[in-house]
Amino acid sequence: MFYLKIKRLIDFILSFLGLIILAPIFLLLIIAIKFDSKGPVLFKQKRVGIRKKYFYILKFRTMRIDTPKDTPTHLLENPEQWITKVGKFLRKTSLDELPQIINILKGDMSIIGPRPALWNQYDLIKEREKYGANDVPVGLTGWAQINGRDELEIEVKAMLDGEYAEKIGFLMDLKCFFKTVISVLISDGVVEGGTGIKKADKESVR
Predict the structure, then answer these.
(1) C-beta atoms surrounding 201 within 10 Å
(2) 116 Cβ partners below 8 Å, 6+ apart?
(3) Domain ranges of the chain
(4) How far is the C-alpha of 127 from the C-alpha of 168, rounded, in Å?
(5) How far is it, in rounded angstroms, from Cα 171 to Cα 187?
(6) Could you read off the pLDDT of 34-51 as tens digits, one per residue?
(7) Which residues touch 11 (CB under 8 Å, ≥6 apart)?
């Protein structure tokens, strides 16, 4: 698909510029994380990319180093106890996602696309397969994120990701980008740990 080549070029240019422009913010956040708790600044986690290929996603660490690994936050007992003070701020503002600019620069991810599933989120991966959502680049933000974000159930999220895969194009990506900015500013759809409590009308996302 020709657009995917254009999309990759746009991703490379914007992520490269983003690293330069956001360098001061990166530095401030690194200092804050180091002062707040013990452990590395960055958190690496095995995720599923395009065509179900594995890669390691990068985030600013928001949880204690003794937090159970490879467990979605909503499956932890009392997830709040594992999140650091700085981590709460980073999650609320989505600043913990900033290091994924490096993933985008490398080509692991795109700016816009379905959010990469954890390697062991077999239910989500299986549902996405039904709609062809595993065959497009995963992204920092996407159609599902602006239509419910953490609140969506697995089936609904996969359907929205499939809708994005079907309609992928410059205008669709532009729409996702600007709506994401608005969602982040108002913290729309953020439920700690992604509990999946929002039950959307499944017919409305077909």
Answers:
(1) 8
(2) 47, 48, 49, 55, 57, 109, 138
(3) 2-205
(4) 19
(5) 24
(6) 999 999 999 999 999 999
(7) 104, 105, 107, 109, 110, 111
The model's pTM: 0.82
CA 74, CA 80: separation in Å to the nearest integer? Answer: 10
Q: Where are the alpha helices (DSSP H) in 22-67?
A: 23-36
**CA 53 from centre of chain:** 16
pLDDT at 70 (0 to 100): 62
pLDDT score recorded for residue 203: 39
CA 115 to CA 149: how far, in whole Å? 10
Rounded to whole angstroms, how far apart are CA atoms 64 and 125?
A: 27
Contact criterion met (CB below 8 Å) for 196 and 138: no
Residue range 112-158, pLDDT digits in tens = 999 999 999 999 999 999 999 999 999 999 999 888 766 688 999 99
